[in-house]
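Researcher: Here's a chain I'd like modeled. Treat it as a single chain, no partners, no ligands.
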Amino acid sequence: MRPTPNRRAPWTIAAVFGLMSGLLAFVVLVVAGAARAQQQVQPLVADLSKHLVAITTAFSGTDVLLFGATDGPGDLVLVVRGPPTRKVVRKKARVAGLIWANRDSVTFDNVPAFYQVFASRPLDKIAPASLYSRHQIGTEHLTFTLADKSVTDSFVPGFRAALVRLKKKQELYGSRILPVTQLANRLFRAELHFPANIATGAYRVEVYLIRDGDVVSAEITPLIISKIGLGAEIFDFAHNRAALYGLTAIIVAMVTGWLAAIVLRRN
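Model: Modeled as a single isolated chain. Structure tokens:
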């Protein structure tokens, strides 16, 4: 009797070959996905504890926590910039040798309302001055725009230095570099302090990751400082309807004086 041939063998071999091919394709996809995910890891991630600072009538300053992580060792430099403003700097001089009066003046545009720098180490040990000049890191590297193009360059440095000096006196510009706390060369944090006389508007918190004297990653986080409540209503009324606000203030002062006179007369 002739043995019956095994007709299932070819199908079994084909099934095993297909299974191995599918498994190999799956392994290739997993490895490629892992490699792609590794490439997409951001070297720097940063955020704020809050993105809105509300100024009320009882506002006396506030602190905001900045925190984040890096993909490895590196130096961190943080810059907090307030909204750009226009500032007029005036120089006083004696008139007729008797009284002091404003004489010369220079108007600057693009002056940050607030400016503070944080760093994990002294700046001169992190990167060359050319990098700080390129990113306007440090008050000496801030670029103010002259509103009056007729002013000579030799006339400007004294007024610029006076403006920075005044901002530091008002605690709106940092007089020194504040520290960034690093943990295990990956996590970091910094306390951002905003004084009571802080201006409202859109602020920028810039974080730079620097290695070997060059910026390898940077992130910008927005921060809004705004008035709320009754103080905000009065502020908007005074700025948007100045004439009506002045008239209202005069009427309120007259009525208050009249009522005070009546009370004192009865007493």
